[in-house]
Amino acid sequence: MNKVSFIKKHSVYIFFVMIILLLTSQVQLKAVGFTGNSFPDISEDLEECRNDLLKGENVNLLEIQDKLNRISEKLESSKMADYVKPLFSDTAEALAKLKFEVAQRNNSSIGKSFSDAIEKIKNIKKQCSWIIKPAQPMSEAENVCPAQPCKGEPGYGKDWLVFPPSQSAPGKSKLQPTGFIFYPGGLVDPRAYSVSARAIAAEGFLVVIPKMPSNLAVMGINKANQIMLEFPEIRRWVIGGHSLGGAMAAKYTGKNPGKIHGLALWAAYPSCSDDLSKLSIPALTIYGTNDLIAKQKKLNESMVLMPADSSRIVLIGANHGQFGFYGVHPGDGRALMSRHEQTEKTVFHTVKLLRKVALQPWP
Q1: What is the rounded distance in angstroms from the CA atom of residue 286 to the CA atom of residue 314?
Q2: In this structure, what DSSP letter does residue 325 have?
Q3: Strand 283-288's sheet: what is its strand order?
Q4: Which of 41, 70, 327, 338 has its CA 20 to 30 A from that of 348?
């Protein structure tokens, strides 16, 4: 049997492996936070299997089956973050089908198995769409242009967005130079928070929104360090964030208590491993009653982890996605207040916290 005829005979196997290779590339496994031993680098293993299938008459299907078993074991034993695990369940099932077909050499069922695999791959691509392309800003946010971006032009793809403080804000002369670092929600373009950032800056506070690696704050928890070094004139820093960004802002606060003077969480709460209750800084938790992403029970239970000087603001009718301008958040509840009203109230309470920090006597 020559190589051409072999490829024709086993084209289903070859094409199936190539599709999985393409899938793992599109999902960008490394981009979602896997490093070192926790990264299930199945793409290289699948590449090796594909090369084995192309050996022509010298192919050893039992050896390929053994390699596929090892790939499955690596996938199952990898230390994935909880929020990424669901993305790989269908990949594991597709691998199992491929192993079965290789072992049985059952050509009568390969057509249906192939069709099923294609459908699963389509579903995986749909699940991963936010990793491939983050939630984009609505026109209201996209049209906001910071006057003085820190690096390069303002917008998606740069290090961060900067909103300089208004020098004509009421009572500005009485405020200590205070900055607000805001971590975006997971898989959300940072420009989606430009409307709120501009409104906060208009009250006399520097606002900086960093672009997170792969749009996941969990991969850029220490972004605040770079920002603080860039603005040495700022004497006090408040950090905050939305959703996953808020949780990571809380984590940063716990690890850097001397650097942070206030914390603002929008539809977010600290994890059980981040106990901030002993910190003597003012803090804010604000969320909506129609939020089906950050559950009220979790938010209420987490208040014991917040600093003693914490305020809890509940917005009746607000939901999760309207803390930013990026459209409808998948799985969210229907808001009973407008996006602009929710933004206005969120900004009001955040500015109140910032003013409290900025008016405190300097030690």
Answers
A1: 6
A2: S
A3: 160-163, 206-210, 178-183, 236-242, 262-266, 283-288, 310-315
A4: 327
Tokens of 19: 């599709």
In the chain, where are the structural domains located?
3-132, 139-358
Is the pLDDT higher at 339 or at 298?
A: 339
- Is residue 318 within 8 Å of 342, Cβ to Cβ? yes
Do the beta carbons of residue 252 and residue 171 sit within 8 Å? no
What pLDDT was estimated at residue 196? 97
Under a CB-based contact definition with an 8 Å cutoff, are residues 191 and 134 in contact? Answer: no
Best mean pLDDT range from 109-118, 161-170, 291-300, 308-317: 308-317
Select, from the ranges 82-86, 217-221, 269-273, 319-323, the one with the highest average predicted confidence (pLDDT).
319-323
> CA torsion 47→52→54→59, rounded to 10°?
-160
The three-class DSSP label of residue 266 is strand
- Cα 132 from Cα 134, distance rounded (Å): 7
The upper half-sphere exposure of residue 74, i.e. CA atoms within 13 Å in the direction of its Cβ, equals 17
Query: How far, in Å, CA of 112 to CA of 104, rounded?
Result: 15
The mean pLDDT value for 268-289 works out to 96
Q: Is the pLDDT assigned to residue 152 strictly greater than 90?
A: no
Where is pLDDT greater, at 262 or 33?
262
Q: Residue 62 above 80 pLDDT?
A: no
Domain 139-358 top-level CATH class: alpha beta
Q: Whole-prediction pTM value? A: 0.67
Inter-residue contact 227 to 182 (CB < 8 Å):
no
Residue 102, CA distances (Å) to 1, 76, 106, 113, 276 in order? 19, 20, 8, 12, 54
